[in-house]
Design a protein that fits this description.
The structure is a single chain. The protein is of the alpha+beta class. It folds into 2 domains: 125 residues, Arc Repressor Mutant, subunit A; 142 residues, Beta-Lactamase, CATH 3.30.450. The protein is 48% helix and 19% strand. The strands form 2 sheets. It has a 5-stranded antiparallel sheet, sandwiched between helices. A 4-stranded mixed sheet has the order 1-3-2-4, with helices on one face. The radius of gyration is 21 Å and the shape is globular. Bound molecules: zinc ion (ZN). Zinc ion (ZN) binds next to helix 3, strand 4 and helix 5.
Length: 294
Amino acid sequence: MAKFRLTMARQHGERIATEKGFETLPVDPFKIAETEDIMIVPKPAIAKGVSGGIIFDEDYPSIFYATDIDNDGYQRFTVAHELGHYFLDGHPEEILKSSKMHISRAGFSQGDSSIELEADHFASGLLMPTLLARKELGSGVIGLSGIEALADKSKCSLTAAAIRAAECSPYPMAILVSEGPNISYCFMSEGFKSLGKLTFLRKGTPLPDSATREFNRDPENVAYGRHLTQETSLADWFDGPAHIKLDEEIVGLGSFGHTLTVFSSDALAENAYEEEDEEASLVQSYTPRFAYGR
Ligand SMILES: [Zn+2]
């Protein structure tokens, strides 16, 4: 599916957050539904793997979400995803083609249905608009701790925050989710991609020899959400220049059996901020001339 459709869906989510007056995190999808007269119905248990859905039966649509996974971030993301089906062009029509009710499956799906992916990107943009996410990520705490802070402030899951961080991090960062010996997915920020000619880590391929691979050998590390940080290099993971050192920060994501690995470094972050400062001071030094230098 075209990447630009996903970008548009994300930007649409960001726009709704702004239109509804959210200038700081967290953005509240329940409040947004209220302003659109959408009824929200918590459901204790639906079917396994079902996170929620939207019904276009009445004059006003209603959204339901599963409460059996007792996790605020998960439930907010579900409601935001369903709002995507309401706000995004063509979604209600697409859903009404087959039935009045649409059922969504768990989490930030890596699924193949186009409206599901679009609704996920809408939710991601709605809950973590670029400006607000960049501001949080740029507040000085880098890597996994920065992602944890973003997750906390936006009330999103660590995984959703990590994916968003890789999209809009102000310094080079890559995130990788793995399961057992294999890579589930990997995203790199624009700054990270420009560190060299890098290999793209593909879904379903084995993890390289690494601390993450070792970590995943013990399922308890994953289940109990243990943390581990090791030094690695761009060469070890991405076939990039070996002199670029990275922190490999690893955390078990609990019962789903996934592991999150974050690649970043203080040195790379400092460089990125210095470049930004240089740009800013150039702008500053020019401004007076334009303003008063006649
Ligand atoms: Zn859906």
